[in-house]
Amino acid sequence: GAVVSQHPSWVICKSGTSVKIECRSLDFQATTMFWYRQFPKQSLMLMATSNEGSKATYEQGVEKDKFLINHASLTLSTLTVTSAHPEDSSFYICSATRGAYEQYFGPGTRLTVT
Amino acid sequence: QKEVEQNSGPLSVPEGAIASLNCTYSDRGSQSFFWYRQYSGKSPELIMSIYSNGDKEDGRFTAQLNKASQYVSLLIRDSQPSDSATYLCACPGGATNKLIFGTGTLLAVQP
Fold it and tell me: Could you report the per-residue pLDDT of A25-35, keeping only the tens digit for each?
């Protein structure tokens, strides 16, 4: 149990366009979902915390108008990178919480902005 | 600012040896601790959770927690080359249910 999927697994887009990434918990209802970003050889960086039916809570320094998060149900959260630029190219990973704190990660989405 | 600290490594051990990964945390009130494994280019995978002082064993993995010393460790017995990965320690971040992750220890198991 505790399977989290992400779609797409990789995406290439042109600078200035928007990209939507989906995160689904497949076999459990997640109390909270999280979005992380990770650059090569660097640590996980938490971007935002997402709860169903509520506005996402963004970490300091993360632009909420650029990284739009929608948490439509207890099993689905989406991250939209708006007006993407090459510096947004990264590995985006979501996680879903089962219970109080246990986080289960999706496989990640590799975004390349050209 | 709550912190979780790990030695970045790399920790190199020969195949078949015991790998010992260590983590310290700053929040004395933390009650839950997690170990994640992250292979290069992949997302983290939860491998162990521990909530009570002492040892918790799961196959070749043993998590050890010492709340008085604010120290949690992960032992991997009979290390295999397939265990080569970055191991992340995490504990709750306080008022919210987010986790604070350490920067991870890179483990390299030499065949």
Answer: 999 999 899 99
